[in-house]
């Protein structure tokens, strides 16, 4: 068996096993879906700040930016067609995730990851070759279908493959991969902006094919998770052999028994989207909506989508704006990596609360500085632009520690097997819906609210931090198949699920 870090057997509900090299390699390959997602996020903000790209596809925006001296700094990029280029990906992802739910449940997590990679490839090719705005947006739609499948399957895959003691760190590798994708996109944008002839944006869009190819090829060799296998086969020995392989031990009977019980329960659920509405699943349903909603109204997409545009708004040049986006991307990766190392020790709630406070304070400061120093015309001094950049980096650090990775981790670990695929689809769909709404409306909001947009998102950060403090229980180190206990022991949720789970309590204690 592959070597790894030992997991203590049956301590506080832990199963026997190790964090094997087999699991690490499989999860690294699966997390490549996060690289593509991050690349798609980062690339759009960069190319939409490139003058040759704007001149070819969005000439009105180009004219306002270069020639119209009467337009406010905050309104130069306000174009519904321009935001449609960015947000069309998320509309497609919203609808694709519901199809992905059925595919993930019926054919396995691996099948959804493979389909996601194939759609990424097609979208990247179309975007790089685009000669009109419709071809450009259709390429983004195909990328969105790929994102819908990958984001539905990859977090589930990571949580189901990982030993519970290390699940937080391994699942956070998805957000780390997203951050790596954003950074790669920003670096490529910074380089291609300097290409003579004005065709560098084509390289930026087409380069999404590289991680897409790796994901598609790698998905062919990925093992299926035991949780998925047990849903789709009656061969218990096959599931047991897979468990032994990924846990690095022959003693997997306790985990196998829980998987069998969960599988038998899941087979009684014919309509998971209908059943998730039942009272006993109320906490999971609330979290599947609240967590992705809050993740988007942190305002992170102000940075992720439009960082170069935002930096150009405060008066930085094209190259300086793209380079600033590289800096914020690097900060996001570093702090997400830190989150991976401490999330299973510190816990989910502590990181979310600490990160929320950090994001709230920095958003208030950025909004205040832009209100005081940036008018409708001209820019800010280099010194104040640097201060704003530092504050935005601190904000990104707060997100990288908390809501970035944990917004994907927590929903992927709280659903029982019988509603897991449906619950993850709701999470991804809500995420895409509000990503679309924020992406589509941000430039208009920036134009109308001006610096007040940071106060708007800051208020949401305050609300969500209070929500975590009162309503989110700690889930660290608890096996997925025993996660129901956190709701039965929570001061609020036990009033809703306590009686409904009386039988389950006896079975699991």
Topology summary:
Elements: E1 4-7, E2 17-20, H1 21-30, H2 32-47, H3 51-57, H4 59-66, H5 80-107, H6 109-129, H7 133-161, H8 167-192, H9 200-206, H10 209-219, H11 226-232, H12 236-247, H13 253-267, H14 272-275, H15 282-296, H16 300-304, H17 307-313, H18 318-346, H19 348-373, H20 382-401, H21 403-414, H22 417-449, H23 452-471, H24 485-488, H25 494-497, H26 502-508
Antiparallel strand pairs: 1-2
Helix pairs in contact: 2-7, 2-8, 2-10, 3-4, 5-6, 5-7, 5-22, 6-7, 6-9, 6-10, 7-8, 7-21, 7-22, 8-9, 8-18, 8-21, 11-12, 11-13, 12-13, 15-21, 15-22, 17-18, 18-19, 18-20, 19-20, 19-23, 20-21
Task: Write a concise synopsis of the structure shown.
This protein is mainly alpha-helical. The chain has one domain (21-224, 270-496): MFS general substrate transporter like domains (Growth Hormone, Chain: A), CATH 1.20.1250. It contains 26 helices and two strands.
Helix content: over 70%
Question: Strand count, sense and closure of the main sheet?
Answer: 2 strands, antiparallel
Global shape: globular
What structural category do the secondary elements indicate?
Answer: mainly alpha
Note the total helix count. 26
End-to-end separation? 31 Å
> Compute the gyration radius: what is it?
23 Å
Describe the protein.
This protein has helices at 21-30, 32-47, 51-57, 59-66, 80-107, 109-129, 133-161, 167-192, 200-206, 209-219, 226-232, 236-247, 253-267, 272-275, 282-296, 300-304, 307-313, 318-346, 348-373, 382-401, 403-414, 417-449, 452-471, 485-488, 494-497, 502-508; strands at 4-7, 17-20. The longest helix has 33 residues, at 417-449. Helices cover 75% and strands 2% of the residues. Strands 1-2 form a two-stranded antiparallel sheet. The chain is an all-alpha fold and 509 residues long. The chain has 26 helices and 2 strands. Mean pLDDT is 83; it is low at 1-11 and 500-509. Helix 2 (32-47) runs parallel beside helix 8 and helix 20 runs parallel beside helix 21. It has one domain (21-224, 270-496): MFS general substrate transporter like domains (Growth Hormone, Chain: A, Up-down Bundle).
């Amino acid at each position: 068996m592959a070597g790894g870090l030992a997991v203590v057997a049956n301590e506080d509900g832990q199963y026997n096993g190790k964090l094997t090299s087999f699991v690490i390699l499989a999860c690294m390959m699966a997390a490549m879906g996060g690289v593509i997602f991050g690349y798609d996020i980062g690339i759009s903000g960069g190319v939409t700040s490139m003058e040759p790209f704007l001149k070819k596809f969005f000439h009105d925006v180009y004219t306002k930016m270069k020639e119209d001296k009467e337009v406010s700094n905050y309104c130069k990029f306000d174009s519904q067609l321009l935001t449609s280029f960015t947000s069309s990906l998320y509309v497609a992802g919203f609808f694709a995730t519901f199809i992905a739910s059925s595919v993930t449940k019926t054919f396995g997590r691996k099948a959804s990851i493979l389909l996601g990679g194939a759609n990424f490839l097609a979208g990247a090719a179309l975007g790089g070759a685009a000669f009109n705005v419709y071809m450009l947006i259709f390429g983004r739609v195909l990328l969105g279908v790929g994102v819908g499948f990958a984001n539905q399957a990859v977090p589930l895959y990571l949580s189901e493959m990982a030993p519970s003691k290390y699940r937080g760190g391994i699942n956070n590798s998805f957000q780390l991969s997203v951050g790596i994708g954003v950074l790669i996109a920003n670096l490529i944008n910074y380089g291609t902006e300097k290409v003579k002839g004005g065709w560098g944006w084509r390289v930026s869009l087409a380069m999404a094919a590289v991680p897409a190819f790796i994901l598609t090829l790698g998905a062919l060799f990925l093992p299926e998770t035991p949780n998925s296998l047990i849903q789709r086969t009656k061969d218990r020995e096959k599931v047991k052999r897979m468990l032994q392989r990924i846990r690095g031990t022959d003693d997997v009977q306790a985990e196998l028994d829980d998987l069998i019980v969960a599988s038998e329960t899941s087979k009684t659920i014919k309509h998971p989207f209908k059943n998730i509405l039942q009272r006993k699943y109320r906490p999971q349903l609330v979290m599947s909506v609240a967590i992705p909603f809050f993740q988007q109204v942190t305002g992170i997409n102000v940075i992720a989508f439009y960082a170069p545009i935002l930096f150009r708004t405060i008066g930085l040049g094209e190259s300086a704006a793209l380079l600033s986006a590289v800096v914020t991307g690097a900060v996001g990766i570093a702090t997400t990596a830190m989150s991976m190392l401490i999330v299973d020790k510190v816990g989910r709630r502590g990181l979310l609360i600490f990160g929320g406070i950090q994001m709230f304070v920095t958003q208030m400061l950025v909004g205040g500085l832009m209100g005081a120093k940036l008018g409708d015309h001209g820019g800010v001094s280099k010194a104040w632009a640097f201060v704003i950049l530092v504050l935005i980096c601190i904000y990104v650090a707060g997100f990288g520690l908390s809501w970035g990775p944990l917004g994907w981790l927590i929903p992927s670990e709280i659903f029982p097997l019988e509603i897991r695929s449906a619950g993850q689809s709701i999470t991804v769909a809500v995420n895409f819906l509000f990503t679309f709404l924020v992406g589509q409306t941000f430039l208009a909001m920036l134009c109308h609210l001006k610096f007040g947009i940071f106060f708007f998102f800051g208020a949401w950060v305050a609300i969500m931090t209070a929500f975590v403090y009162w309503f989110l229980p700690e889930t660290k180190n608890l096996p997925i198949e025993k996660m129901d206990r956190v709701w039965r022991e929570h001061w609020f949720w036990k009033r809703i699920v306590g009686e409904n789970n009386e039988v389950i309590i006896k079975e699991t204690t």
